[in-house]
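Dear colleague,

Thank you for sharing your sequence with our group. We've completed the structure prediction you requested, and as agreed, I am returning the results in plain text so they can be pasted directly into your records. Please verify that the sequence below matches your submission; if there's any discrepancy, let me know and we will rerun it promptly.
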Amino acid sequence: MMIIYHLVLIYIGILFLLLILYRIVEPAYMLIFNKPLYIHFYLFPKKLTKIQKQIIEKEFLFFKRLTPKNKIYFEHRVASFIKKYPFIGKEEILITDEMKIIIAATYISLTFGMRHYLIDLFTKIIVYPSAYFSTSKQQFHKGEFNPKMKAVVFSWEDFILGHQTTNDNINLGLHEFSHILHFHGLKSNDPSAIIFYDQYNKVITYYNDANLNKKLSEQGYFREYAYENRFEFIAVILEHFFETPQLFKINYPELYQDVSSMINYDENNFE
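Please find the predicted structure tokens below.
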């Protein structure tokens, strides 16, 4: 009985320390360093099958460049994503392992610096073979995030084209998942969302400030669709951030750093 009693006391003590870390230490840490106290902690990291892992290694330079430790984290997150969100094929499209892995790994690349990445703003992935008619917007779409349906919808033809063409700054997966992060940053109070929103307020000045907006538009690096509204601006710059990072960093070093901080992108994760 005494052993059980001491174990219970130890357990309560650990919970108390974790509560202190969460409520007191982490907010102070975030204020000083502008990032969460920790990102990755998995007692039993999930594994992908050999074939699934080969798909990631083949398709994602992001994954190939990660350190061995971070590859384990990335694999766990992709497996967790696939387990949490069902993939629904429309118009008789067959959902394959490759489709699941590429869609999931795109999202994980974007959110790798965030502790809370499996968010509840969406509950399913809907995939059409090509452009589809959106009943919510009464027009044909290549992809969308539908908050009411809690769904992310993709035309696979356009998703895979954006994934395979890596130098045109057009990536449907990154674009639509960026909309979700934007909504999450506005609505949630988890540490990663708070940091996203704080840095978002810096990034969005490039859209709100008439002079900065005009300068960006005239220089032509970001495509015109970026200036449609705030949501498209954030989505487009995140496409550029992942597809042509060196060019982005050279031309707009301050904006690049703000975007990097917004998603807690850490270059130390890579070899």
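Summary note from our side: Strands lie at 87-89, 124-128, 132-134, 139-141, 143-146, 151-155.

Kind regards,
the structure core
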